């Protein structure tokens, strides 16, 4: 049974002044569930076989170079925050990413084909270039590590030095790479599990993904 002190009860009443005492416990339960959903994945000490299992997962993912997901994105860069629906289609190193802001209805389409990048949805028309991350940040103010995220979002390491912690199931819990800390919270039940929530952060930026659908699943 959840016990609340007088200060906690007063705080809940300030947020919902019409609530009756009998309902305060229910509110507390809901708040606890929400806090639990936001809690980081527990990390266990590394055991023999973790790296082998991860290498096996990454090899299986490499055999599926074409994939896609859809979901929700929340991002913050140096105080510039926003959220959007996201659809990401990947085929090898080529990708097609669509972002749509739910409130304003504004949308962007970022595509890379053979090293050439285009960004659609800007007032001045489509922008062309070769550095997708720089183009997106200049246009929206958002910093997204796109090249690495294509690996991270599937629970894999991108090329380069990295440090990886695992959860109780032997799946990635926290990945530190290229100046980012990537947390994984929830996985699919597929033969090769895929992340459901991916939170990447560095001191002045964060990218939070809630993935609703994977293809292939």
Overview of this structure, please?
This protein has 217 residues and is of the alpha+beta class. It folds into two domains: 6-38, no CATH class; 50-215, Lipoprotein localisation LolA/LolB/LppX (outer membrane lipoprotein receptor (LolB), chain A, Clam). The chain is built from five helices and eleven strands. It has helices spanning 6-15, 21-38, 50-62, 132-140, 146-152; strands spanning 66-77, 80-91, 94-100, 107-113, 116-120, 127-129, 162-166, 172-177, 180-184, 197-202, 205-215. An eleven-stranded antiparallel sheet has the order 6-5-4-3-2-1-11-10-9-8-7, with helices on one face. Strand 2 and strand 3 form a beta hairpin. It is globular. It starts with 5 loop residues before the first helix and ends with a strand. Residues 1-16 and 19-37 have low confidence and may be disordered.
């Amino acid at each position: 049974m959840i016990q609340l002190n007088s200060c906690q009860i007063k705080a809940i009443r300030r947020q919902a002044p019409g609530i009756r005492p009998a309902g305060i416990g229910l509110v507390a339960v809901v708040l606890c569930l929400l806090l639990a959903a936001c809690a980081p994945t527990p990390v266990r000490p590394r055991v023999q076989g973790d790296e082998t299992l991860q290498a096996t997962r990454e090899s299986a993912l490499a055999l599926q170079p074409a994939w896609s997901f859809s979901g929700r994105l929340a991002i913050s860069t140096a105080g510039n925050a926003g959220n959007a629906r996201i659809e990401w289609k990947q085929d090898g190193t080529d990708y097609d990413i669509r972002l749509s802001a739910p409130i304003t209805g504004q949308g962007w389409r970022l595509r890379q084909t053979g090293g050439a990048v285009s960004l659609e949805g800007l007032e001045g028309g489509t922008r062309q270039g070769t550095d997708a991350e720089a183009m997106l940040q200049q246009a929206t103010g958002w910093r997204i590590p796109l090249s690495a995220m294509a690996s991270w979002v599937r629970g894999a390491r991108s090329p380069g030095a990295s440090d990886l912690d695992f959860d109780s199931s032997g799946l990635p819990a926290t990945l530190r790479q290229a100046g980012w800390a990537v947390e994984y919270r929830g996985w699919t039940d597929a033969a090769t599990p895929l992340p459901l929530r991916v939170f990447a952060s560095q001191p002045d930026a964060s990218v939070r993904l809630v993935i609703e659908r994977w293809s292939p699943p």
